[in-house]
C-alpha cells in the first residue's frame, strides 16, 4: 500500500545538506533578482535600481546624528558602506527565505516577490521619480528570483529515501529495503547535482547580464555625457582677479590653493550621481514675490553676463580639522541679477520672501536666505569649475554657489527649481532633521603638516595649513606649541575674502612628544573659540591640534 503524501510539505525529509543548499538557493535567487533588476534599471533609470531606491529611502529616514557619524567615520565612502550594509541584510534575509522555501516552497517564493513589491514602492515614491516605470526593475527582478527559488527548491524535494512505495513499506526483506534506500540516496544526489547546475548557470547568466548592462550603460547617461562633452564655456564678462603673488604656497603637505576637481570633497545624499542631459535641462524660477516667472535653459544662462570667481566651499559636516572644505574657480551668472529680473526684492527692500528654496533633480531641497543672496556677494548659478564644465558629481549642468554659507543652506547641486517663499512657510530637507535653517560659515583653521602622530626630525619643522572664514576673510593665524605662548604664523597673500588662506610657521622642534594647536582670527576681529562643539546644528567650532613625536637628539 502506498504512503499518502502531504502536498503541502516536502516529499523528502530535509537533511542538513538540503538546508545548506536551500540557504544557498535563497542567496542565488536574491543575487539573480538584484542583477536582473540592475540590468533593467540601466535601461529605465539607474536610480530605479532596488538597492538605490531602498537606500535612498533609508537615508531620508536616518536620524541626522547617525548620518553625521557615517560621514565622520567613513568619509566620502559612506554611500558605498550603506549599500554594502543593505546587501548584507538582504543576504541574511535571503538565507532565511531559502530555508522557509524548503518547508513551504510557494511561501518562500512569495516572500521574494514581496521584497520586489517593497523595492518597487520605494522606487516610485522617491522624490525624483516621475514615472510608474521606476517600479519595473524591482518587479521583474523579483519575479525571476521567485521563479528561480521555486525551481531550485523543487530540485531538493524529490523522492524520500527509505519510506513510501519507492523504498518499500518495511514489510519486505532487508535486501529489498537496502535496495530501495540505495536507490533513493542516488536519486537525492542527482537532485542536488541538478540544483547546483541550475544555481551555477543562472548565477553566471545573471552576472553576465549585469556586466553587460553596466558596460553598455543607460541611454539617459550616455545622452548626459554627450551633452556635457558638447558644452563650450563662455568667456567671462567679469574674469576672476589674478591670484596675488604669494597667495600660493608650495610647502610640502599643505593643501593646494586651488583644489583640483578630482580632489574636491563631495557630501550629499545621492547614492547614484544624477547625470542630467543638459539639452533637456530647465531651471524654473517662481514663488512669492516673483513678478514674472522664468524658465531658462543652459544655453540661456550661458548667453547672459557671466562672472568668474574664486570661492571656498565648506560642508557643515566638517569636524574641526576635517577635510570637507575646498577652493575652486567658479564660472556662472550672478543669482541676484536673475532674481531682480524676475521682480524679486530682498526683505530689506520690502520683499515678501525671505527664503529661496533650491530644488535638485533628485528631490533635495536647500533653503537660503534671500537677503544673503542679494546683498552684493558673488552668489552664483555656476556651470563651470576650474576651467571645465561642472563634473557630474559636483552638480552638472548647474549648481548654486554662495560664499559665506555652509553648503547645506546654499550649494544646491543639479538644481532645477528656485522657489521664493518664507522660512515660516517651508522647511528645507535638513531642517526637520535637526539642522539649523540658517548657517553662516564659522571661522576655522587646520594644520595640514605635520600630520597627526607624525615623527618629524628635530630642527626646523615647517608647520603649515589653511584657514577660512568666507565673506569675512582671515586676519591672523596663530600657533601654539604645547602650553607655550601663541605665536603669529605667516599668512599667504589674500586672494579675496571669499577664499581660504594658507599659512606657515617655522618651528624649532626639540625631541619628544608635542602638541601643536592653531587658531584663526577673521576679518571682523573675532577669534575662534577654544571649546570644541559638534557639527550639529550649525557647524563645528574649536581649535585644531595635532600630536607629533620629534625624533633626534641624545
How would you describe what is shown here?
- This protein has helices at about 15-45, 50-60, 65-75, 80-105, 105-125, 135-155, 165, 175-215, 220-230, 300-305, 335-340, 370-375; strands spanning about 285, 295, 305-315, 325-335, 355-360, 365-370, 380-385, 390, 400, 415-420, 445-450, 460-470, 475-480, 485-490, 490, 500-510, 510-520, 545-550.
- The protein is of the alpha+beta class and about 550 residues long.
- The strands form 4 sheets. It has a 5-stranded mixed β-sheet with strand order 2-1-10-5-6. Strands 3, 4, 7, 8 and 9 form a 5-stranded antiparallel β-sheet that branches.
- The protein is globular and about 85 Å long.
Number of strands: 18
> CA-to-CA gap between the ends?
97 Å
Main sheet makeup: 5 strands, mixed
How much is the radius of gyration in Å? 31 Å
Return the structural class: alpha+beta
- Sheet with the most strands: spatial strand order: 2-1-10-5-6
Quote the beta fraction.
15-25%
Uncertain runs are: 1-11, 159-180
Helix/strand order, N-terminal first: HHHHHHHHHEEHEEHEEHEEEEEEEEEEEE
Average the pLDDT over all residues and give the rounded result: 89
Helix percentage range:
25-40%
Shape: globular
Question: Briefly, what is this?
Answer:
With 554 residues, the protein is of the alpha+beta class. The chain has helices at 16-44, 50-61, 64-74, 78-103, 105-124, 136-156, 164-167, 174-216, 219-229, 298-303, 335-341, 370-373; strands at residues 283-287, 294-296, 307-314, 325-334, 355-360, 365-369, 380-385, 388-389, 399-401, 415-421, 444-449, 459-468, 474-481, 486-488, 490-491, 501-509, 512-522, 544-550. Helix content is 35%, strand content 20%.
Amino acid at each position: 500500500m502506498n504512503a499518502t503524501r502531504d502536498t503541502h510539505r516536502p516529499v523528502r525529509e530535509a537533511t542538513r545538506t538540503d538546508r545548506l543548499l536551500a540557504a544557498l538557493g535563497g542567496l542565488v535567487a536574491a543575487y539573480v533578482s538584484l542583477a536582473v533588476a540592475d540590468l533593467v534599471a540601466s535601461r529605465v533609470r539607474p536610480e530605479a535600481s532596488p538597492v538605490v531606491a531602498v537606500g535612498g529611502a533609508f537615508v531620508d529616514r536616518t536620524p541626522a546624528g547617525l548620518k553625521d557619524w557615517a560621514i565622520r567615520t567613513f568619509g566620502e565612502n559612506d554611500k558605498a558602506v550603506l549599500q554594502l550594509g543593505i546587501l548584507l541584510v538582504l543576504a541574511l534575509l535571503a538565507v532565511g527565505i531559502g530555508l522557509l522555501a524548503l518547508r513551504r516552497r510557494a511561501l518562500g517564493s512569495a516572500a521574494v516577490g514581496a521584497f520586489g513589491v517593497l523595492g518597487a514602492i520605494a522606487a516610485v515614491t522617491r522624490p525624483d521619480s516621475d514615472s510608474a516605470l521606476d517600479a519595473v526593475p524591482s518587479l521583474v527582478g523579483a519575479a525571476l528570483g521567485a521563479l528561480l527559488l521555486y525551481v531550485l527548491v523543487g530540485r531538493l524535494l524529490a523522492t524520500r529515501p527509505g519510506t513510501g512505495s519507492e523504498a518499500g513499506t518495511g514489510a519486505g526483506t532487508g535486501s529489498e529495503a537496502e535496495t530501495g534506500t540505495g536507490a533513493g540516496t542516488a536519486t537525492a544526489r542527482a537532485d542536488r547535482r541538478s540544483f547546483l547546475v541550475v544555481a551555477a548557470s543562472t548565477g553566471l547568466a545573471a552576472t553576465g547580464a549585469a556586466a553587460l548592462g553596466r558596460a553598455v550603460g543607460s541611454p539617459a547617461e550616455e545622452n548626459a555625457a554627450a551633452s556635457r562633452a558638447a558644452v563650450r564655456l563662455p568667456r567671462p564678462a567679469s574674469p576672476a582677479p589674478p591670484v596675488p603673488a604669494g597667495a600660493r604656497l608650495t610647502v610640502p603637505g599643505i593643501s593646494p590653493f586651488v583644489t583640483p576637481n578630482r580632489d574636491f570633497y563631495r557630501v550629499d545624499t545621492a547614492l547614484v550621481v544624477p547625470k542630467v542631459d543638459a539639452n533637456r535641462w530647465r531651471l524654473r524660477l517662481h514663488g512669492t514675490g516673483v513678478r514674472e516667472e522664468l524658465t531658462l535653459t543652459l544655453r540661456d544662462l550661458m548667453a547672459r553676463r557671466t562672472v568668474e570667481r574664486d570661492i571656498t566651499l565648506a560642508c557643515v559636516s566638517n569636524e574641526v580639522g576635517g577635510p570637507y572644505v575646498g577652493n575652486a574657480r567658479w564660472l556662472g551668472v550672478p543669482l541676484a541679477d536673475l532674481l531682480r529680473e524676475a521682480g524679486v526684492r530682498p526683505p530689506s527692500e520690502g520683499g515678501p520672501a525671505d527664503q529661496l528654496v533650491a530644488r535638485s533633480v533628485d528631490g533635495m531641497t536647500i533653503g537660503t536666505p534671500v537677503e544673503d543672496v542679494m546683498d552684493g556677494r558673488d552668489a552664483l548659478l555656476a556651470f563651470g569649475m576650474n576651467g571645465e564644465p561642472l563634473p557630474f558629481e559636483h552638480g552638472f549642468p548647474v549648481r548654486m554657489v554662495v560664499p559665506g554659507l555652509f553648503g547645506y543652506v546654499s550649494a544646491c547641486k543639479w538644481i532645477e527649481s528656485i522657489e521664493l517663499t518664507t522660512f515660516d512657510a517651508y522647511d528645507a530637507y535638513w531642517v526637520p532633521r535637526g539642522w539649523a535653517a540658517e548657517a553662516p560659515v564659522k571661522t576655522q583653521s587646520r594644520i595640514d603638516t605635520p600630520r597627526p602622530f607624525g615623527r618629524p626630525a628635530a630642527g626646523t619643522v615647517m608647520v603649515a595649513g589653511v584657514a577660512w572664514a568666507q565673506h569675512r576673510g582671515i586676519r591672523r593665524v596663530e600657533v601654539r606649541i604645547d602650553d607655550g605662548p601663541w605665536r603669529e604664523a605667516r599668512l599667504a597673500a589674500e586672494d579675496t575674502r571669499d577664499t581660504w588662506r594658507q599659512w606657515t610657521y617655522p618651528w624649532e622642534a626639540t625631541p619628544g612628544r608635542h602638541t601643536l594647536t592653531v587658531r584663526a582670527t577673521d576679518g571682523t576681529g573675532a577669534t575662534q573659540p577654544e571649546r570644541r562643539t559638534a557639527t550639529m546644528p550649525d557647524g563645528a567650532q574649536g581649535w585644531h591640534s595635532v600630536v607629533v613625536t620629534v625624533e633626534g637628539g641624545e
